[in-house]
Design brief:
Elements: H1 2-21, E1 77-82, E2 96-102, E3 107-112, E4 118-124, E5 127-132, E6 143-148, E7 153-156, E8 162-165, E9 172-178, E10 186-187, H2 188-193, H3 201-208, H4 212-219
Antiparallel strand pairs: 1-2, 2-9, 3-8, 3-10, 4-7, 4-9, 5-6, 5-8
């Protein structure tokens, strides 16, 4: 009898383990609408794989990250992305890289990466960086900030609002690795005030608890994308 209970316990444990490990893969895009007609289908969760026999060194290579990005724009920064679109060999590896250039007093505005955490290293200049947690039990969103100098490293957890600002008189440069071949980016101001079509102003007026004229003004601005 004890043997039967032992075998039943093992079976339940095995089933629980199977259920716990059998989850859907993380998406690599914002959404993927199901379609029955294969002629209207597009494979986007990753990319099609080349026959390994046909792979070559160039599939795992790119260049140009030594070239500064153009920071002559409203936010004073430029993000040069190296993802699976630049290096086909990154497909399925779950990593990507960016170079970020900052003009004096330039910033990479508050944004999130919905599909990847980020680890950033400063190679030139000084940066004031930070991220905000999700809602805590006390109803607050905690802010973590740090001033980084050359050689310093900072981590931004997946999906959390974060930013970088150059408080110096000289340009700054940073490189960052992301834990996705396509981490995505949502710049908060652009998404909220520059969506197409615009979000109903009544929604934003209540959400931000400001006069509707302020929302109307913000929605009429040009929201620059530095990526």
């Amino acid at each position: 009898m004890k043997g039967a209970h032992f075998l039943l316990s093992l079976a339940v444990l095995a089933l629980a383990t199977s259920i716990a490990s059998a989850y859907d893969p993380s998406p690599l895009q914002d959404f993927c609408v199901a379609v029955d007609d294969p002629n209207k289908a597009l494979f986007v969760n990753g990319k099609f794989c080349r026959d390994p026999k046909l792979a070559k060194a160039e599939d795992f290579f790119t260049s140009g990250l030594n070239i500064p990005g153009n920071t002559d724009n409203p936010v004073g920064s430029n993000v040069t992305t190296v993802n699976v679109d630049k290096i086909p060999g990154l497909n399925t590896l779950g990593i990507s890289l960016v170079r970020i250039d900052y003009a004096p007093y330039g910033e990479n505005p508050p944004h999130i990466h919905p599909r990847g955490s980020e680890i950033l290293v400063v190679v030139e200049g000084t940066l004031y960086v930070g991220f905000v947690t999700s809602n805590q039990k006390d109803g607050k969103n905690r802010l973590f900030t740090k001033v980084l100098n050359k050689g310093d490293v900072f981590v931004f957890p997946i999906g959390l609002i974060h930013f970088q600002f150059n408080p110096g008189h000289t340009p700054a440069v940073a490189f960052a690795g992301l834990s996705s071949q396509n981490a995505g980016v949502i710049t908060i101001a652009n998404a909220v005030f520059g969506s197409d079509p615009p979000i109903n102003p009544d929604v934003l007026t209540r959400a931000f608890q400001v006069d509707k004229n302020i929302i109307d003004y913000l929605q009429k601005q040009f929201w620059y994308d530095n990526n």
